[in-house]
Amino acid sequence: MTDKELYERLSYKPKNAYYEMSENEIKEMLEMCDDYKVYLDEGKTERECIKISEKMAIENGFVKLEDKRRLKPGDKVYKINRDKNILLAVIGTDSPEDGFNIVGAHIDSPRLDLKQNPLYESNEMALLKTHYYGGIKKYQWTAIPLALHGVVYTKSGEKVEIKIGEKETDPVFCITDLLPHLAKDQMAKKLSDGIEGEALNILIGGMGVNSEDISEKVKFKILSILNSLYGIHEEDFFTAELEVVPAFKARNVGFDESFIGGYGQDDRVCAFTALKGIFDIDAPKKTAVCLLVDKEEIGSTGNTGMLSKFFEMTIAELTAKIMSKSDIISINNAISNSACLSSDVGAAVDPNYETVYEKNNSAFAGHGMILMKYTGSRGKSGASDASAEFVYELVNIFNNNGVVWQSGELGKVDQGGGGTIAMYVGNLNMNVIDCGVPVLSMHSPFEITAKSDIYMAYKSYVAFYKDR
């Protein structure tokens, strides 16, 4: 053996996933990514994600967990929590006490939420005040077309679903920005301070009613339109849940169409692939579970975040319906012996900003699924650090199933960092690791992913569901 051959045998070099795929896999990848773009377009909010996920689940033979008194191997069930969480399970042949194989992703994304009293008039224009949700660069949300999604409960008790700005015939909305000719003071500020949170106000109208009896003529015109179309009064904003999201659709990116660009890929790219993976599982040994949760971008709090009891309560219900008993020891064993892929995105090295990455330990777009042993900030603060035993087990599963994968961190140690649901899953005393898709322009209104990485994430979840 030559020194070169020995070096190649001993050393590690990430692979480009596109060069490792067969023609059939490339065809499957392209079809999957077309479906994924539809998922992004139809699921721009958590509620919409749950709606399309439930539709996909039913099409793939899943039934509501509450409709089943007993569960047997091969049964496919799902449970929804407050229209913002869903848990799907394919019942395995092993006892629940041997643990479940869980892939968990979040379906909330950075955005703008309307304030509870948002509508006002200024300079004969009507605007809506917002409160940004999650970590955004505020300047990225100005001067782009925006859509309004959500629900409103009217005085009559009717639940009205709102989706304005997605059809070609719909109006869109916008946050105006200052012209460069007058932006001397603005452009002298730090980038983070160039646009203030209280300046993220949505332009929604400018043609008032021609009446001397009304002081706020444009606001009155907007209220009249909202009342005519939806039966809404201004007070109904207090009981509304309205989100402002980019109005554009997911698109192929590049001459070779090798990338997908779209809003909300963090973390709906992992939610979609986790769903597609469990749909392809029929008779696993361990029960396979796909969990989609809310509120990750603001700390996983509340009754729909990972910190809620929904997951544990549903695991208890599954255990009881499989074993015909629900004692605390059985439930604790089921959770402790489970393993979870915290299915979340990682940062792909950006050629325009290479200095913030440490390339030996960073992910590259097109090099497959990213396996992140730990996340957190700087000194691993807020991280869940996976054990050597669990990483070894997963690497073998992925290698044995032809998954192209890479390891990575979010960036240089002192540069920053971020968290996922992994730390909260780890608190339940189960093995967990972050495992997902590298993303360019993360948290922007138009995030970028490589199609090969999407496909490899799907392959990794299928392998984990069936082989662990």
Spell out the key features of this protein.
single chain; 468 residues; alpha/beta; Aminopeptidase; Aminopeptidase i, Domain 2; 2 domains; 9-stranded mixed β-sheet; 6-stranded antiparallel β-sheet; 11 helices; globular
Describe the fold and architecture.
With 468 residues, the protein is an alpha/beta fold. It folds into 2 domains: 3-109 and 263-467, Zn peptidases (Aminopeptidase), CATH 3.40.630.10; 111-246, Roll (Aminopeptidase i, Domain 2). It contains 11 helices and 22 strands. It has helices at residues 3-10, 23-42, 46-59, 184-187, 217-230, 265-279, 310-323, 328-336, 388-400, 422-426, 451-467, and strands at 63-64, 76-81, 85-90, 101-106, 111-122, 125-133, 146-153, 159-164, 202-205, 241-246, 251-253, 259-262, 288-293, 339-342, 346-347, 369-372, 376-377, 405-407, 417-418, 431-436, 438-439, 447-450. It has a 9-stranded mixed sheet, with helices on both faces. Strands 8-7-10-5-6-9 form a 6-stranded antiparallel sheet, covered by helices on one side. Strands 11-12-22 form a 3-stranded antiparallel sheet. It starts with a helix and ends with a helix. The model has no long low-confidence stretch (mean pLDDT 94).
